[in-house]
Amino acid sequence: MEKRTSIYICTGCGIGDTIDTDALCNVAKSEFNIPTCHEHNFLCSKEGIDFINDDLSKNGTDSIIIGACSPRVHTSTFKFGKNILTERVNLREQVAWCSKPNDEDTQMMAEDYIRMGIVKSQNIRPPTPYIEENLSSDVLVTGGGISTITAAIEGSKAGYKILLVEKDQELGGWARNLFLQLPQSEPYQQLVEPVIFQKIEEIRKLSNIELLTSTSINEISGQPVKELDELSEVTESDKLKHYDSQGKIDPFKPLIQAEPDQPENIPEKRPARILTPLEKIDLSQIRLVAVIILNKKQIAMVEEASGKGYEVGLGTYIGKNQGRVTEIKNSSIVITELVRDFKGRLKENIQEIKLHKNDNGE
Ligand code: SF4
Predict the structure, then answer these.
(1) Does the beta carbon of 199 lie inside 6 Å of ligand 1?
(2) 119: pLDDT strictly greater than 80
């Protein structure tokens, strides 16, 4: 339906001194065929609002355009009921207060703002609310534990019809097994009787709660749920059913996973053999005290912190990380041990123990 539009232009706050407001009304009349365009020098005053209201009651307008100050101010002043569509055009802050007075460009800008306001107003359609038919406000509560029983009681007190469905024969859930529980009110000094039994008692007295025990929900539909499609009695065999995670995605596993360790990288346990005394000492506690060449064979002498000495050769186990002596040099021994990296995989680690010098540097 065509809107009947009226325009009201305020000449106050310097608008009338900067813009030719008569020309704005001519734009509305000549370009948009809007017959009603009024000017007022103080539109937000009581006189100005009364003037608009009088005019509205006379000509049956359903859409008005107010050319005045910013729509961010006087929002409640320019309200004329939900049947009057009101569009504000900001001639004060966006034109009069920021442009050269009585300039051709200033006037063109003001006229353009009026044109935009008119077109916007013409194209606005009042929204029609979506109201679904046969919407039910009944509440389905599933489960008969302490929290759902409380929800059902509160829903009932709020005036809703409640359907409480519990798969077991009895209400109460795990809370039925409690001997005593934490207090719910002051003075919080000693354990109290479980409140679940009072709640069960209360729920049985409320007439707008329908209670179904030994019942499970097979299907629900609609959004919000319009109907409870199917209820069925829970049998003993149903109780034995359990969730089978076989073939299903494990929600606790990250989607991107590291490649599984190769067999050779899988960490070995400590060797089954009896460990030598040197394998029980950390490499940092061992010092090299001598390297001897005997029959072209190199032998090293090491010492633990207590001063106890050991002879080591190539292949001797040493240190706590399954290390072995892999090289004996003139003034050091090289040990290759197995250590775990940050992913837990075994890696070779080369350590060198240099010949220990005494206090004289020898
Ligand atoms: S505040 Fe707005 S409505 Fe009031 S006189 Fe100024 S421009 Fe006009």
Answers:
(1) no
(2) yes
Q: Which residue has the tokens 């504000």?
A: 88
pTM score of the predicted model: 0.43
* CB contact set of 195 (below 8 Å; sequence gap of 6+): 146, 175, 181, 184
Round to whole Å and give the CA distance between 197 and 107. Answer: 79
Tell me: pLDDT of 269 over 90.
no
Best mutation site among 10, 15, 49, 94 for ligand 1, i.e. most ligand atoms within 8 A of its Cβ?
A: 10
- Please tell me the distance between residue 236's alpha carbon and the centre of ligand 1 in angstroms: 78
How far away, in angstroms, is 123 Cα from ligand 1 center?
26
Q: Where in the chain is the domain with CATH 3.40.50?
A: 5-123
Higher pLDDT, 97 or 3: 97
Ligand 1 contact via 69 beta carbon (within 6 Å): yes
d(CA 284, CA 307): 14
Residues of the chain with CATH 2.30.30.830: 277-354
Share of residues in the chain with pLDDT > 90 (%): 45
User: Whole-angstrom Cα distance, residue 172 to residue 258?
Assistant: 45
CATH 1.25.40.10 assigned to 277-354? no
Superfamily of domain 139-236: FAD/NAD(P)-binding domain (3.50.50.60)
Best mutation site among 18, 42, 45 for ligand 1, i.e. most ligand atoms within 8 A of its Cβ? 42
Domain spanning 5-123: CATH 3.10.20: no
